[in-house]
């Protein structure tokens, strides 16, 4: 992974190129105050003060130059100067005015590349940004590492990232922080977590389903549970997806990637919690023993589920994992999952829906998302749609007919497995960016990670 700690440094007055970040509303005022050579360079580059305009500005010496960026991003945005992070030559830089603050994150992430499958990775050296707030560097680096971990895991092809590989990733995390792990698979999984088992039973022996758990922290501290959907590839099962629908299904473990990264942030910051990470890891494959539409499944909680769609498998494995989390009576449960296409239809790729059974928790998530420029949008756990989950033969169905309110009914299904007295938040993340933006390449994306981290840091920091 990128060495993010090498991309930020304390400002001790060392030589550095200057970056001028000018808001469009202040551009004319700024330009008037500049020397003639600067105004000439601005004119030659056809910079007129529109967001995204940029120019190289000459300095006093022949080899001296500075950078101009016209930017209308708020000073609190992580992405304010991200467009420069991978566009400037290697070297050391400082802002002409003010501190980079949150923009250090975008600066770092703009220099991250997923190179696992590249035969000739980019060999350009680092661009180092100076800051007068060295105490923030460690915090920014940790968040950059967590974000990059989500991206890298999601971008990895399913042939290289199966349930066993997710297990190895959790084991690596546990070793780094002195945590303990427990993995349930095979016959024990079939007995203890029957819905995780049945969803993954058609996969090959090497990609057998499992529940991966990690625990860390002082048992006397408040217990929190992080649950992430780990479908390493989703064919749709017997309700098979189209080739287009299957194209990105390597990312169906995006919820697990987010929760593994968030667990790393929690442990790295030594939050005063008893952490319980749960990753139900499966491949939804097609074989003679694949589960079928019409099968009635027994859950760990004892509730029975009529399977109406084998492509609505994520909520099944999450239900067993949530039941396990509840058994230890945490005060907070957070789950992330690439759960429904309906969420994308409703809110698009950039805005994950948030569901919560607790008003204070919901408010905290929305506020943290706004503060971190990692927005969420709350959708309702609408009781009026609960009847859509009725089954003629079992306690409930996993996917109602008709497709109405698909993200809501999926969340309502999960709610059946969480008691009302445990605060619970569910984020239906896309974990993917279909088009690049500064600091955020096309591909795997951490959507909701910074928001969730802000909530936990505020509550337990």
Describe the structure.
InterPro entries: Leucine_aapep/pepB (IPR011356), Macro_dom-like (IPR043472), Peptidase_M17_C (IPR000819), Peptidase_M17_N_1 (IPR048816). By secondary structure, the chain is of the alpha/beta class. It is 32% helix and 21% strand. It has helices at residues 27-32, 36-44, 82-85, 103-109, 137-155, 163-177, 186-192, 194-200, 243-246, 254-268, 314-326, 341-347, 359-371, 406-415, 449-460; strands at residues 8-10, 17-22, 54-58, 65-70, 91-95, 127-131, 180-185, 210-216, 223-228, 230-234, 274-284, 296-298, 304-306, 332-337, 353-356, 377-378, 396-397, 423-428, 432-433, 443-444. The strands form 4 sheets. Strands 7, 8, 9, 10, 11, 14, 15, 16 and 18 form a 9-stranded mixed sheet that branches. Helix 4 (103-109) crosses helix 5, helix 5 runs antiparallel to helix 10 (254-268) and helix 6 (163-177) runs parallel beside helix 10 (254-268).
List the helices and strands and how they pair.
Elements (H helix, E strand, L loop, with lengths): L7 E3 L6 E6 L4 H6 L3 H9 L9 E5 L6 E6 L11 H4 L5 E5 L7 H7 L17 E5 L5 H19 L7 H15 L2 E6 H7 L1 H7 L9 E7 L6 E6 L1 E5 L8 H4 L7 H15 L5 E11 L11 E3 L5 E3 L7 H13 L5 E6 L3 H7 L5 E4 L2 H13 L5 E2 L17 E2 L8 H10 L7 E6 L3 E2 L9 E2 L4 H12 L1
Parallel strand pairs: 1-6, 2-4, 2-5, 5-6, 9-11, 9-14, 10-11, 13-17, 14-18, 15-16
Antiparallel strand pairs: 3-4, 7-8, 8-11, 12-13, 15-18, 19-20
